[in-house]
Design goal:
0% helix; 5-stranded antiparallel beta sheet; mainly beta; single chain; 5 strands
């Protein structure tokens, strides 16, 4: 059997619309709710793709084309809010589209989700 070669990539961007410094860790609001401000807001976007090597579907040994998609692409749009430094609220919309993965060679239906989360980090 040939060695499978799968490929995946993504591009992501974010922007803090209230002017604070953007980064991966805690976002410290310049004017939190405690100080009479609105806190900090960040918008996020990401696009990603996955391409599974067709060799994995040969003979239905590793995956079945009628059950597993050979390609997936998706995007996420999100809004984060830090009312005060240690607390963050997330709201995100996510959608993934598939190639294959359904009976008779059809495409598996798209998956769509709205996600929310509250995080406390100290």
């Amino acid at each position: 059997m040939a060695t499978p070669t799968n490929a995946a990539w993504q591009v992501a961007a974010s922007w803090v619309i209230t002017g604070e410094k953007n980064g991966e860790g805690l976002l410290r609001p310049t004017r939190s709710l405690e100080q009479g401000g609105i806190g900090a807001f960040r918008v996020r976007a990401r696009y990603q793709e996955l391409d599974v090597d067709d060799v994995l579907f040969v003979g239905n040994v590793f995956a079945k084309a009628s059950e597993s998609a050979s390609k997936a692409s998706g995007f996420n749009l999100g809004l984060d809010w830090w009312p005060v430094t240690p607390f963050r609220f997330y709201l995100e919309y996510s959608q993934t589209d598939f190639k294959g993965g359904a009976a008779a060679g059809a495409d598996k239906p798209s998956e769509k989700a709205i996600l929310t989360r509250f995080q406390a980090a100290f």
